[in-house]
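Worked Example 4.2. Consider the chain below.
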Amino acid sequence: MRMSKETYIAAPWDNLVKSVTAVIIIFIISFTLLLTYVIDNVNIIAGIISLYSAVLVIPYLWAPQGYIVTNKRILVKRLIGDLKISFIEEPERWAWTWWGIRLFASGGLYGYYGLFSFKGIGRVWMHATNRHNLVLIKTNQGRKILLSPKDPEEFIKRALK
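Applying the procedure from the previous section yields the following structure tokens:
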């Protein structure tokens, strides 16, 4: 019986994710502080703080934190719960294109995750944090998934072991 070894591979943010995330956090904190000075009603202020906190926290729960790779299986580590991916075909590098749209997704805040559609591959689920390190996975169920491991070549090599 052959034992498969798990390998953790990080999912670092690219500069766009860092910038978008920083700008949104700074904007929300600044706007919240401004509203607390303008509004006298404590209930309204509490509601605004709750709403803006949710805007910052909930997407972070879904953002990819890294990947665990074993033989023909990948685990996308997320705070909300890990996503298990099984595949048959060899993962392949995929180059980012601006010819795409978000269908139901986050496109910069903590990463790129959710359902996108890109010219050339059609609908694809992304669980990525870096547009420059994308790997395309085709699952056993026929879904296409884009991931962004720190070292795509090492990731592909480990996924096939």
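Helices lie at 15-38, 42-62, 152-160. The two ends are 15 Å apart (CA to CA). Compare this with Example 4.1 before moving on.
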